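Problem 12. The chain below contains 510 residues. Write out its predicted structure in token notation.
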Amino acid sequence: MSGDNDLAGAGAGAGAGAEAGAATGTGPTGVDTGTDTDLTSADATDLAARIRRREVSAREVVRAHLDRIERVNPQVNAIVSLDPEGALAAAAAADEHLARGGAAGPLHGLPIAFKDTHLTRGMRTTFGSPLRADTVPDEDELLVHRIQAAGAVRIGKTNVPEFGAGSHTFNPVFGVTRNPYDLTRSAGGSSGGAAAALAAGLQPLADGSDMGGSLRNPASFCNVVGLRPTPGRVPSYPAWNPWDTLTVPGPMARTVADAALLLSVMAGPDPRCPVSLEGPGAPFREPLECGLAGVRVAWTPDLGGRVPVDAEVRAVLEPQAEVFRRLGCRVEEDCPDLDGADDVFRILRAHHFDLALGAALDASPEALKPSLAWNIEQGRRLTGPDLARATACRARLHRSAVDFFTRYDVLLAPVSQVAPFDAAAEYPDTVEGQPQHTYIDWMRSAYFVSVLGVPALSVPAGFTPGGLPVGLQIVGPPRADLAVLRVGAAYEAATGHGRRHPDILGKITT
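Solution.
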């Protein structure tokens, strides 16, 4: 599986896969009721098609989501800087465009709130920091421009940790984002507002970004789908470091097909981004259905013994290897070389924060949370040889991963080492009894994969006995984003875990 087009027609077909996994699937339970349910729980792909066929108007769709936000968002706190008037005006313009016979883009009329670290022209972009609380950009970031050019209607922003640092979404500007499956638990981060908004039915699609798991961890915590694409698949502009390949933008959605739909408009080269990949995004809109017979799968429950994983998470994930066997895959327990990945990630991350926020720490040390200040200080202690060694080690790990994926088509691993934790905590202080000393220690199962420079998909995999979501990480070789999505779609169809929605209205007290 060396390229995006592999798995296009392999095996017995998606129908056989769905039948094979039916016995272990989880059907929809706890689905909210209400007049907005049809429009706010519909798949984005289907909803966009209904708008194009003029079976429902963009105004109706946006109004339903705004009503849902009014009822649910005060408890979840996923969407911030809401602009209902602007959204309704844009929806009306989208309807009028269709009425005049205008062409509809792939996302025509779909509401979306953009991650609050992504620049949006004319709307506050705070980065979750008091230092940026009143910042209103005069331009759109490239992905924001592309999503709106495809017809999406901007409704607001989604909440983030302070400067996107950490995989738990809280900040002094907007407060804590809570998990729709349990309002006392974290929604993850840094794209936590995006994941919670999807799970709560506040929007059908969401953008995000991922350095150490910021698309994948919140997707796992909120029972939605998050894709960390191959670096360069979704170009960044403007960017403080245009050569950066550790942080990547990517899509989130409630289904794999919807994530692929959003990727199709986010992806594609841009000459202003020197690491952007050639090739248009449109192929990601093609059907993902395929059989998995003969697909070579590696499964690692703990990344080769390198990370602790809580027993309740492991108990959910270990049976998933059998699902892939029933789908016709050849499954073996194996793991790529990850020796040195911890040091690589920590060095490059610390360097990133020092360059991006060092001046802010000097000017306003009291305005940054202690964990972020610590990370910046770690960057200041680095030397030139430290960075050189990290870069060389990352190159070695990438070459090792390329070799690993000549033997396997995909790797299965935990997304997160823990289930959603107490929202009052900054991070879990232990994992399976092992102390976690910093705010990033518990994220290794995601950030080790980041170092490899490969695509990684978080897809719903089931629930703990307490009803908390757990995600499965599906990893592929470099640039095989489409193949990873196809494997994820087949697994999704076989299990149906993502169809279990939170009973969020039942959790809200009035």
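Discussion. The longest strand covers residues 456-463. Students who got a different answer should revisit the alignment rule from Section 12.3.
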